[in-house]
Amino acid sequence: MPFNGNGHNGFSPAQFDAAVMTTYGRFPLTLTRGKGSYVWDDQGRRYLDCVAGIATCTLGHAHPAMVEAVSQQIQTLHHVSNLYYIPEQGALAQWLVEHSCADRAFFCNSGAEANEGAIKLARKYAHTKRGIANPLIITAQASFHGRTLATITATGQPKYQKNFDPLMPGFAYVPYNDIAALESLIAELDAETPQVAAIMLEALQGEGGVCPGDRAYFQRIRQLCDEKGILLILDEVQVGMGRTGTLWGYENLGIEPDIFTSAKGLGGGIPIGAMLCKASCDVFEPGDHASTFGGNPFACKVGLTVCQTLEAENLLENVQQRGEQLRLGLQRLIQQYPNVLEQVRGWGLINGLVLQPESSIKSVDIVKAAMGEGLLLVPAGPQVVRFVPPLNVSADEIQQAILSTEKAMAMAIKRQHS
User: Fold this and answer.
1) Could you tell me the residue ranges of all domains in the chain?
2) 3-state secondary structure at position 140
3) Could you tell me the pTM of the whole model?
4) Which of 150, 198, 239, 401 is the most exposed place for a label (fewest CB within 10 A)?
5) Enzyme catalytic residues
6) Is the C-alpha dihedral spanning 251, 255, 256, 258 positive or negative?
C-alpha cells in the first residue's frame, strides 16, 4: 500500500516506492522521530507506539542510556573482526549466561540468524554425539522462526513458504500445545532408528496469534527430551529480554532449554542476535560457524546497556504491572463488544486482542482505526491485534492505549456498517 503523506526532507512516497522493493505492505504513515513511548510522523502528529519495532524497542525511543552508549562506542571502536578478542562481546556474553540457564553465547545480527545457528548446532550434535545420519527437527504449526530458507522451513506456516520451494529437508511439524500429537510423531519418526535431533518451539507464539505455551506441555517435552537425548531449542526472539515479565519466556514454563535464541529486544532497536546454549551441547569448533558483523563492539555495547538498564530500572516489575493493567482494560473492552471480540491472551507486555472467528472486522481494520486515534498497533494474523509497547511504558500511557483502542473499535464498527 503506497502512503499518502508528503514525504520527509524532500523524499516523496513515490520515490520511495520506486527505489525500495515491495516486501512490506506499508501503512500510510511516515515516521521521523521518537522519544520514550511516542513517535512523530512527518506532519508533526504524535502516536503512542505499542508496536515498538515489533517487540524490539525495549527501552522505547532515544533512551538516555542508549544514546550515551551509542555515542561513546561509535567514537571508541565500532567494529573489528571476530579474529580478535572483543571486550564488549565478552561482557555481554557474561551477563547473558549469568542471567540465564546458558553457559555460552554466539552473536549474530538477527533472530533468523540466531535460529540458523541453533539449527546448525543441533544438526552437528546429532551427527557427532548421537550418530544420526539424517537428523530431523520438529517444530510447531503456526510458528515463526525467520525468513531465511532454513528458518521459513522451520516456520510452520505455509503462507511464508509459498513459492520458495524446494524447502530445506529435515523438518517435521506438530500442532502447538498438543502433547499427544508430539509423542505420536516422535514414536513414528524414531520407530526404526533415532532421527529426531531437536524440538524447536516458541515459549509463546507471537506471529502465530500471541498463543502462550502450556506449562504441562513444555514440562512433558523436557522430560521426553531428557529420556531420548533430544535437544530442546526455544526461540526467544520475540518473548525474551523481559517481554513476558520474566527475563526469558521459558521461566514462565518451569523448564530450561538446551539451546535458546534472542534478538529483537536484546539491542533495543540496534541489530543484534544471540544463540545461547548449555556447555553439554556446544559442539561447535573454529570454522563451524561465523558472522562478520555479529558481536561487534558497537552492537554488544548497546546490548549490554539494555541488559543493565532492565536491572537498574526494575523493568520486569513494570512489565508485570503494566501487562496486568492492559489485560484488565482489554477485558472490559471485550465485555463492551462481545460480538466482535473473543478474548485477550498473553504474558507481560506481549498481548493479543482476539477477534471472534465469525467477525467481519479483521485485525488490520482495528490497527488502521487506532492509527487515526494516535495509537500504533500491529496485527498477529487476521484475527489478533498485538500490543507490544516498550517495557518502560507508564501506567498513564497504558490507560491512553486502552482508551484509544476503545475509540478505534467504535470507528472500525462504524466503517463496517457505513
Assistant:
1) 13-62+314-417, 77-312
2) strand
3) 0.95
4) 150
5) 144, 235, 264
6) negative
- Distances, alpha carbon 22 to alpha carbons 2, 26, 251, 262, 395, in Å: 10, 9, 38, 27, 37
Q: How far is CA 106 from CA 121, 278, 384, in A?
A: 11, 12, 33
For the chain, 418 residues long, give each residue's pLDDT as a single digit of tens: 334 444 455 567 788 989 999 899 899 999 999 999 999 999 999 999 999 999 999 999 999 999 999 999 999 999 999 999 999 999 999 999 999 999 999 999 999 999 999 999 999 999 999 999 999 999 999 999 999 999 999 999 999 999 999 999 999 999 999 999 999 999 999 999 999 999 999 999 999 999 999 999 999 999 999 999 999 999 999 999 999 999 999 999 999 999 999 999 999 999 999 999 999 999 999 999 999 999 999 999 999 999 999 999 999 999 999 999 999 999 999 999 999 999 999 999 999 999 999 999 999 999 999 999 999 999 999 999 999 999 999 999 999 999 999 999 999 998 887 7
Q: What is the 3-state secondary structure (H, E, C) of 207-233?
A: CCCCEECCHHHHHHHHHHHHHHCCEEE
Amino acid at residue number 305: T
- 292-296 contacts, C-beta under 8 A, 24 or more apart: 292/81, 292/82, 293/79, 293/109, 294/82, 294/106, 294/107, 294/108, 294/109, 294/113, 295/82, 295/86, 295/89, 295/106, 295/107, 295/108, 296/78, 296/79, 296/80, 296/86, 296/89
Whole-angstrom Cα distance, residue 70 to residue 225?
41
CATH architecture of the domain 77-312 equals: 3-Layer(aba) Sandwich (3.40)
CA distances for 395 relative to 315, 323, 356, angstroms = 13, 10, 28
Closest CA to 93 of 103, 83, 78: 103
13-62+314-417 adopts what CATH topology?
Aspartate Aminotransferase, domain 1 (3.90.1150)
Cis peptide before 166 (omega within 30 of 0): yes
As given in the structure block, the three cell numbers for residue 276 are 545461547
User: For residue 212, what are the β-bridge partners?
Assistant: 204
Q: For residue 347, give the DSSP letter.
A: E
Helices (H), 291-357: 297-312, 315-336
CA distance 285 to 111: 22
- Among residues 9, 2, 1, the alpha carbon closest in space to that of 42 is found at 9
- The DSSP 8-state label assigned to residue 201 in this structure reads E
Quick one: cell of 216? Answer: 504441562
